[in-house]
Amino acid sequence: MNNRKSGFESASTWRRQLGAAAVEFALVFPMLFVVTYGAIIYSYIYVLRQSLTYAAQEAAQAAVSVSPGVSSYDDLVKQTAVNTAIAAISWMPPSVRTAISVDTGDVTICRGPSSGACASLLPGDVAVVVRLELPLSNGDGGAGRRDVSPLFATFTMPPFGRFPPLPNIMAGQAVARL
Q1: Least CB-packed of 90, 108, 118, 138 within 10 Å?
Q2: How do residues 152-171 score in pLDDT, each as one tens digit?
Q3: Phi, psi values for residue 33, rounded to 5°
């Protein structure tokens, strides 16, 4: 007589296999979710960062095009840079656009070396520095701006802390020499 099974497993063996698959899924799914979620969030953060840098670059280039012989030159340079930066970020959702600092205080005209973004200039150099900031932290964005923390849902993973870790402020900066 043949004691071999006919190719069908008994019901209890099949149920144990399903239980093992459920345990394996429960162990693997959180890691798979974190990797997928992290890839999506960080790709969006990368797009925002590149967009800030692009807007700052466009603003600095536009500011250089202002003729130096006009009256109120500094004000015109700053306003040209602001208008160009606003146009460059116009594709962003309103919740992000309103959180980005775009005003004449974000445009600096450097005449020769000084501290900060102007430190690398040589004596006699004139440059326009445009810096755009997007607050990502929780709480007040400062200076009347609001942060965009609801844009990125974060959660706490007990052994690792807050995920995904985000910088407090994302910035794009460009310098154009005149």
Answers
A1: 90
A2: 777 777 877 777 887 788 89
A3: -65, -45
